[in-house]
From TrEMBL:
UniProt-recorded name of the protein: RsmB/NOP family class I SAM-dependent RNA methyltransferase
One of the GO biological process terms: rRNA base methylation
SUPFAM superfamilies to which the protein is assigned, alphabetical: S-adenosyl-L-methionine-dependent methyltransferases
GO MF terms held by the record: RNA binding; rRNA (cytosine-C5-)-methyltransferase activity
């Protein structure tokens, strides 16, 4: 990676330019490869032990900040993918201004080397909102909040102006680390975490949920986590288990369990009383689920992978079936801002076809009177309401069961959790019941 005729005179300017080169490489590695930013950054730090904690923080927070604000920045600054030039340094200054980063010597050095006027930076720092701050850099560009998420996202939605602004604003912030206690008295878990210096905010919605704040944590050093008594799970994801309401005597099937976050929650909610089968096509994920279940001392989770299109479990035998379907993950864009610019929403028809297929196959396992729960971490109706409508049209033996939105208390046939409602990710969930056949 080269720097285009940029001259760094002082030590702090040379250090700032070094950061700029590193962040440029990482950023465009993500944009080119479409690999998760978390993975690319983790691999970089693993291979480059030279960085201290302050270096890592500047690189990490600027890196993710760029993805959060890229909808504006790529309009404000024509940025070269081939080289680090003055425009790239200005983009870093803008990111730091929007995020209100605290490393002023580095930010000032980026501004100096890029020849950004002192008056511009000073004016940006006194603005009372990111939009007004952006307009300091904008010249004649017209910026608005919706640009912070791709047009391909908005074109699938029919939100009011107020909803759109609420969503765009919350997507620019980092959600807290949500967790839940399991297999332990909740207050004991809270007390243990407080004793280890973790900032705890108890959740008003669910008895076992808690926020661990926004700071990075070394989870492996926390006693409750090492003992399997604490699971990291976003609050919106926890909604799914709470809505499933599994009973101790029921048999449940988690059809797309992945590494098992929701499977573990279902068992935790009923103290591991009652059997649960977890399935996925990814054997590595199921192996991780086994490890987590063993750590939590859960004995009643059985793993049965999908190995073909044939149902891996017995038909008409489950009291509850959870289909946490693969999706576009637009509801997690707040936590993973890089996905806004690397994911392609043009293949939604293919995704929704897969979702309907998985839901239809999985429904065969629900016994008479049993529950079928469909969930995604998407905000797009095409993956949510429209899939359910298509399923019910071809499966009249199922009917919707109204559910209470846990954050608004509104009774709805289908619930979409918006990230701004309780400071979480976004999620969709619906509950259906196989009607009892009439004699």
């Amino acid at each position: 990676m080269t720097s285009s005729a940029l001259i760094a005179d002082s030590g702090i300017q040379k250090r700032a330019l070094s950061y700029a080169i590193t962040i440029h490489k990482l950023f465009f590695d993500v944009m080119e490869s479409k690999q998760p930013a978390d993975n690319i950054l983790a691999n970089y730090f693993r291979e480059n032990k030279k960085h201290g904690s302050k270096d890592r923080r500047i690189i990490r927070e600027t890196f993710f900040g760029l993805f959060r604000w890229w909808g504006w920045i790529h309009q404000l600054q024509p940025t070269s993918q081939q080289e680090v030039d003055s425009n790239w340094l200005k983009a870093l200054v803008q990111t730091a201004s929007f995020e209100q980063h605290a490393w002023l010597p580095i930010i000032n050095a980026w501004a100096e080397v890029s020849a950004l006027p002192d008056s511009t930076l000073e004016k940006a720092r006194i603005q009372d909102s990111p939009l007004s701050c952006a307009n300091v850099f904008a010249d004649n560009n017209e910026l608005h909040l919706n640009q912070l998420l791709p047009e391909s996202f908005w074109q699938h939605l029919e939100y009011s102006t107020e909803q759109s602004e609420l969503l765009a604003n919350i997507m620019q912030t980092r959600p807290p680390i949500w967790a839940r206690s399991q297999g332990i008295n909740h207050q004991q878990a809270v007390d243990s975490l407080i004793s280890e210096g973790v900032d705890i905010i108890d959740c008003q919605y669910f008895a076992n949920a808690l926020s661990l704040g926004e700071k990075s944590l070394n989870l492996t050093q926390l006693t409750t986590y090492k003992q399997g008594k604490l699971e990291i799970q976003d609050l919106a994801s926890q909604v799914i288990g709470e809505i499933c309401q599994p009973k101790p005597n029921e048999l449940w099937w988690d059809t797309c369990s992945g590494a098992g976050g929701k499977a573990l929650q279902l068992q935790s909610l009923r103290n591991d009383k009652g059997k649960l089968v977890a399935s996925d096509i990814r054997l590595n994920a199921l192996s991780e689920l086994k490890k987590r279940a063993n750590k939590a001392k859960f004995k009643n989770i059985k793993v049965m992978p999908w190995v073909s299109e044939t149902l891996p479990v017995s038909s008409r035998s489950f009291d509850g079936v959870l289909v946490d379907a693969p999706c576009s993950c637009t509801g997690t864009w707040r936590r993973n801002p890089d996905m806004r610019w690397t994911d392609d929403l043009s293949n939604l028809d293919e995704i929704t076809g897969l979702q309907l297929d998985i839901l239809t196959r999985s429904a065969e396992a629900v016994k008479q009177g049993g529950k079928l729960v469909y969930a995604t971490c998407s905000l797009l109706p095409q993956e949510n309401e429209q899939v359910i409508k298509a399923f019910l049209e071809q499966s009249p033996e199922f009917e919707l069961i109204p559910i209470v939105h846990p954050f608004t208390q509104a009774e709805q046939d289908m619930v979409t959790i918006m990230p701004y409602e309780a400071n979480s990710d976004g999620m969709f969930v619906v509950v259906m019941k196989r009607q009892t056949e009439k004699a």
